[in-house]
Specification:
43% of the residues lie in helices and 5% in strands. The chain is mostly helical. The two termini are 20 Å apart. Strand 1 (60-62), helix 4 and strand 2 form a beta-alpha-beta unit. The chain has helices at residues 2-9, 28-35, 51-56, 68-71, 91-114, and strands at 60-62, 78-80.
Length: 117
């Protein structure tokens, strides 16, 4: 969700979405919730975060930092948003999480445009 919103709200910047324990596929309720806002995640595949991704990153955003290899990555500022994992959540909870991610990404995009991210 965050990568899709970032690509929409921060043109000219790149985002890679990955996790320390990614699912095999994007959860259907997440796909449905994103379709409600005009974003189709069908066919997207969750990725495992790796050292090369972290080395390339200017910013590392965590949705809930539980992996010391990411949370305390040397040389990178890690911003932890502490957002619930939408897996196994009701459609209403997934929408709430989606909207929270959207708001956070929108604020990040504004900071990037202002040069204060």
């Amino acid at each position: 969700m965050a990568q899709a919103f970032f690509e929409l709200l921060a043109p000219g910047h790149e985002a890679i979405s990955a996790g320390s324990e990614p699912a095999d596929a994007v959860h259907p309720p997440v796909i449905a919730a994103m379709k409600e806002v005009g974003i189709d995640l069908t066919g997207q595949t969750p990725q495992r975060v790796d050292r090369a991704m972290l080395d390339r990153a200017d910013h590392v955003i965590s949705m809930g930092c539980d992996d010391p290899a990411v949370c305390e990555y040397p040389g990178r500022r890690v911003e932890d948003w502490s957002i619930e994992d939408p897996a196994r959540k009701s459609p209403e909870e997934v929408r709430r999480i989606r909207d929270e991610i959207h708001a956070r990404v929108e604020a990040l995009a504004l900071r990037l445009r202002a040069g204060v991210a």
